[in-house]
Records
---
Amino acid sequence: MRILLVEDERKLSRIIKQGLEEEGYGVEEASDGEEALFLLKDRTYDLVILDLMLPKVDGLEVLREFRREKGGSTPVLILTARDTVEDVVRGLDAGADDYLTKPFAFEELLARIRALLRRRKEELELRVEDLVLDLRTRKAWRGKKEVELTAKEFAVLEYLMRRSGEIVTREEIGSYVWGRDYDPSTNIVDVYINHLRKKIDQGFPRKLIHTIRGMGYSLRPS
């Protein structure tokens, strides 16, 4: 199992790396957000441990860009000294699978890693009714029909499916998919929602993508 550890506190990073290697995990380290993005772009990991307070590029932006480029199949555990509910929610909404507040016991870190790796084996696809998104092959089906999606369409749909049943705003979708490049003054999110409606809902009696007037969108059965 290969783990990427992104932590700018050198002493803490060494302690975590040594402990994980003693447990049989392979560990690579990154000490800032830029280095993390470089490694995540070119390499594949079974799990990412990500500190939120990083130099150069902060952890939330690293997380958003990683999810935008690589999707949601790799579990991400965020480490944070920020223990407010708002900060935790921001991390989870950006695509984290779990979080651990500093300081923490190493045994708890190990337990959370084991749980995330077990979950990863079980969650290689997302499903809402007859809509299926395969996170390994990056393919989608509605019933027996394969749906061809661009990378951005896949990212928008993945975000909606991960939050199925919830109302998500245009700003949340835009920030997740386009990151720092998202301009809230444009209608880019609406354009991609319309693309997805044509591909996902057109020709099917039950619609899955719904507009919630004045609030945003929701993916759920009619």
---
Amino acid sequence: VLSTPRRMKCSLDRGKIVQILAAASANLLSILFGFVLSWTSPAITLLQSEATPLESGPISTNDVSLMTALMYVGCVVGSLVAGWLANAVGRTRSLLILVAPQLCGFILIATAKSALFLHISRVFSGFSAGACVVVFPIFVSEISDKSLRGVVGNFLGLGFNFGCLVGKCLTSYGGFYATPIAVFVIIGIFAVIFINLPDTPQYLLLCNRQSDAEKSLKFYRGIPRKETMPNDVAEEFSELKNSPSLMNQKASLSLHDFKGGATILAIIITFFLNGNQNFTGNRILISYTESLLKDSGAQMDTAAMDVVVTLTQVLAAILSIPIVKICGYRRPLIYFYAISCIFLVIAGIHFYIAECGFDVHNFGWIIVTSLAISVAIPGTGINSISFALPAEILPVKIRGTIISLTLVLSWILAFFSIQFYFSLANFWGHSLWMWIFATWCFFGVIITYLLVPETKGKNFDEIVKLLNKRIPKRWRESTDRD
């Protein structure tokens, strides 16, 4: 018979395994998002050629632009719906529901006869991706133990970048229909696993289902249903029940829910973090890597460099997991901003020299290195933390709403920035934009240092106290009503 300490250790280890497996299962949806975003890169060449699988023949450049842009339209709608859906039906049911549009999108791709099929499919896929980006961090944050939260929070970036790499390879080397087949398999695996998972303890408490919340916490902490909670888990459950963010909550939101100095600061931080994908230049650099390399004067196989950049992203995503595990969120975020700032400045200098008419033929490796790092670091470290951190610092009741709102603004900005970047770059040059992105990263270092708290190993009430320390005393409340 196991002694009590050994039994507690076994439960703890089993609980961590359950949490990692649950987060990894949910992360299958971020892999699908990577497929969605990367599928167009190799598919466009095929779709515009005489070997196109479409019965209507090769698609036009306008069709390509519309197909790319419509994904962000779907993302906007999905982000708007996600917060409401997560609060209305729960976190796990939301993710199960949101996989359906992704399935519809790839069925349309697999059966496409004209560009119209592809346009509609991108709206469906964008809707699912935009909504899942909202719900996934909330789900992971609410099921995770404090010691694991940083690690599983980084699954989003790792899954997305891994999906980008696999999606490009499948379409490039497996053919047009390889990616849809892989998506169908992944969706099947996800549904089988996820349909058996309970909802998060926080959501169940929010619905006044205390008994179900207790069972949920026991499940995610690896405690058999018939056993009593160990003292540490019982204490965690008591803290959840008594948390200001969960006590006496009503289903509907009010202006009162957004008041309080710590809450307002958390909202400001969330808006800033969700600006990262656009203002670090990440979306533009990923979308136009090949064109930027050509304009830089670099003489190389740009298609091969595209794969190299994606591999760099995956490697950076893998490395960011132990970094966040050891150091938490705050310190790595400062370092990631600083590294991105340096290499964006270098990229800007290279473009400026090329734009001035100097021969940079022998210095192509500089722009490749700087762009690879400028894509990899924001695309993995910065963005992973930017998605995970708001789910930890925002009050539960407004969490879905605020994250949805910030993502909607981010998707709208992405639509216009990607659509008009080259028109503006032709007027001002690529160099100015690299320096604008670098400036955002520079301010990111300052804002993170001054405002962002370290959440590693802390519960929500402790995080609120840290937020309170970063605002003037007259704006603080004796008890934050979150």
---
Amino acid sequence: MGNETTARLSMREGGDINVVDDTGRTPLSYAAAKGFQAVIELLIETENLNLDSMDPRGWTPLFWAAENGHEAVVKLLLETRNVSIDPKDFWGRTPLSMAAQNNHDTVVKLLLNTGKVDMDSRGYWGRTPLSYTAAKGYNTVVELLIQTDKVNVNSMDPRGWTPLFWAVDNGQAAVVKLLLETEKVNRDLKDFWGRTPLSIANQNGHKAVAELLSHT
């Protein structure tokens, strides 16, 4: 029996659409995580659906859809106009930060287009979505964030590292180039140990990155 059929039968029999299981999650939470678009469409049509039900980690259905890159589901949830777009979980993360960290560029674009997300939101470790994506070399997501012209390219985490530091440390030359091209990045900043992006590039043997920092 398909997921959609099961959902229809449960709803017809008067099942609680907001029922929470032993893990603290609702049917909408599971459907969003799995990308079951048809099931979500059915649930959204019902009355009294809690779009922002939170599980024990503080994740709403939008978190689960964003983290797993389900673009169609994220779009459905956003189109209800009743979903919380920028909630924070218990580690300070948002749907945007989870989509960005997992390189789901289409989901990132959907969330950015709402104009209602904090692009510089910081998680438990004090890092922003740009910090994480710069470290991982997710060029497209980095470009999307930069193109908003609203992201702080020099945001510092507790160790004094900006997104440039993270890109340099991991040898992400393409990201380093993107950041430098904004002409807003401070390449001479020092972290809490007195190191600069250039000194870290040299220390790690990232010659292409060191050259970008020296000559761009």
